[in-house]
Amino acid sequence: RVELKEKAKKDLAGKWGTSVLTVLVYAIIVVAISGLVYWISQAAGLSKDATELLNSIVGILIDGTIAVGLVGYFMNIARGKDAKVNDLFSYTNLIGVVILTVILVAIFTTLWTLLLIVPGIIAAISYSQVMYIIIDDPKIDAMAAIKESKEIMNGHKMDYFVLQLSFIGWAILATITFGIGYLWLTPYMATTNANFYDSIKNKLKV
User: Contact 99/64 with Cβ under 8 angstroms?
Assistant: First the structure.
């Protein structure tokens, strides 16, 4: 865990400015779209359930377009590759498989959560690597990406859980700055998580 976080700091050295800008652009787009959805909901007089459904659909579309681009950007950072703000829009060829994968992951996680909260959390962690897998293998289908994520997370779920918990202190600090701190915390977390993916993938190759 410590090594992954230290590597992330080294990976981001000299790239903080572009990384913060990338997160800011992403946040502005998400907020703008959310505001538009709210306006449409109010103008159309949609019910609470209809509004929630519309928000869910829009969220899935965001995942399929620019959220995957955000993951791709920080994968490039973690791998020492050239990373640019327009990476957010460089994975449009993956829209179909990402959207389908996001929907399936949501369904599977919800079904596990209906049993108990803990199985739902375990399921979510098992599926946590799907975006990285899809970016690495653009030809993979949704079910194969989910299966591979479950396989590579075998024996690493607790490591991943503890890694996420290690950012809680930083998240609290970012929150009390009215969210501004997340512009710096997000690159740190995202690069660390990309390093986590690479580390468990490399272990499988050994």
Answer: yes
